[in-house]
Amino acid sequence: xxxxxxxxxxxxxxxxxxxxxxxxxxxxxxxxxxxxxxxxxxxxxxxxxxxxxxxxxxxxxxxxxxxxxxxxxxxxxxxxxxxxxxxxxxxxxxxxxxxxxxxxxxxxxxxxxxxxxxxxxxxxxxxxxxxxxxxxxxxxxxxxxxxxxxxxxxxxxxxxxxxxxxxxxxxxxxxxxxxxxxxxxxxxxxxxxxxxxxxxxxxxxxxxxxxxxxxxxxxxxxxxxxxxxxxxxxxxxxxxxxxxxxxxxxxxxxxxxxxxxxxxxxxxx
Amino acid sequence: xxxxxxxxxxxxxxxxxxxxxxxxxxxxxxxxxxxxxxxxxxxxxxxxxxxxxxxxxxxxxxxxxxxxxxxxxxxxxxxxxxxxxxxxxxxxxxxxxxxxxxxxxxxxxxxxxxxxxxxxxxxxxxxxxxxxxxxxxxxxxxxxxxxxxxxxxxxxxxxxxxxxxxxxxxxxxxxxxxxxxxxxxxxxxxxxxxxxxxxxxxxxxxxxxxxxxxxxxxxxxxxxxxxxxxxxxxxxxxxxxxxxxxxxxxxxxxxxxxxxxxxxxxxxxxxxxxxxxxxxxxxxxxxxxxxxxxxxxxxxxxxxxxxxxxxxxxxxxxxxxxxxxxxx
Lengths: 269, 328
Hints:
Number of helices of chain A: 13
Distance between the termini of chain B: 37 Å
Number of strands of chain A: 2
Structural class of chain B: alpha/beta
Strand order of the largest sheet of chain B: 5-6-7-3-8-9
Radius of gyration of chain B: 25 Å
Structural class of chain A: mainly alpha
Oligomer: heterodimer
Strand content of chain A: under 5%
């Protein structure tokens, strides 16, 4: 049973990978241009630090902050997930019907495909950015335990991002066009995961509320694990919270899916 | 042959919001929407036996696609029962769909950016098709449909007809017992249509595959189906053999008459002139009022006739008649 599921996932994931490879040129361009953003952050924060004359801003020295941005970019490769876009397009153009007649759950089809697509980005982009980070931006190698846990946490962060996006995508069964919701989803994740600036730059109450939301577990938490901001025990605690959020969002997606399917009319599609 | 589909009193309603035209009403609909309940299916019942090829026809919006979707397990009906191959399609969707194949003529079903061969490979895994069987069936079908090379090109580069043939293979690779074809001949030229029909007949004969076809192309119906189900306003208005329909509704014959002289006006009971040119007449004969023998006799004795062709009116006309009769 599990072997069968894994074989299905492997075959579907490979399709995602192949689709990614079809657009080699676009991938090459992304691969070459993405790291440029790091230079922008570097010079922006360099001038901020020199103007304020402070060594430490919100708990970050200049060099740690740059490490933060390098890691943030790497986590971003893993957790980038547009499955809501695919689902809403499928629903609006009627392709969802083809997904319904395949002997795999809609969730599995999307998850496996997304893993496949992201795998390519991870291989082609993560390694160069790690190298650039080490050579140009003073990224330190993390202790082995943190390094391993970073990847565990990042994998969970991907699932978390996936389920948020998947649930937003399911809303298209009612709303048809979900561009607005998707924008909200992206903005919330961008700000509250610590993608734009570290969460410690926000007011205290935002940080307090944020602990009870899933977003910081998508980016901020894995980065802090790498930067050894937590004790070993606290790392396990954070990973536990990630797992709890995933389970919660997974159960939610099952409930939403059931209702979505029941009221799906397929009219006009 | 055993019955593999039982459908009883199937109903599906859905809500749609109606809005009057104009910008004002568009803005108004942001705040207040009026909903209408529509009946897509109004209590549909039928049985289908293994190995049948059944045509589903009906005017646009009659409910045939909705029926097919419910049969394919992608739709949750409002009420009614259904048993297909021992499953309730919408409840055991994943287990059930392994046994069926579906072609939606108007939907992309193959991964757009990749060659069909890649989608087939994916299906080999998720449908658990043994490798040698997969190869055998793929070669057989690709040969029959003449797409051996085409399946290696990305789907987005295929023509409409090639795409349709590739979808047909996709739906049949796992040797399903039951296949749904929703408008399979859309976009096909005459040669391709013929090839596809031959293909369906051959698969039906060889594997006893049951086919359910919705189409607006009466050629599909006449070439493939012995039995048709006509659906209108969410209700079945006819379910039976095509031959029976012809007997019941074929009250008219069409006569194409060629003369060696200029056609003159004439009057004959039960005979209507459909069109006329200098030396040719197209006539419609009501066989209740006038039998054919008399009509031909009359023509031959009164005119210098070169040729007479007697035909049944095309099945389209019969279907139109049935649609009209059922207009409430």
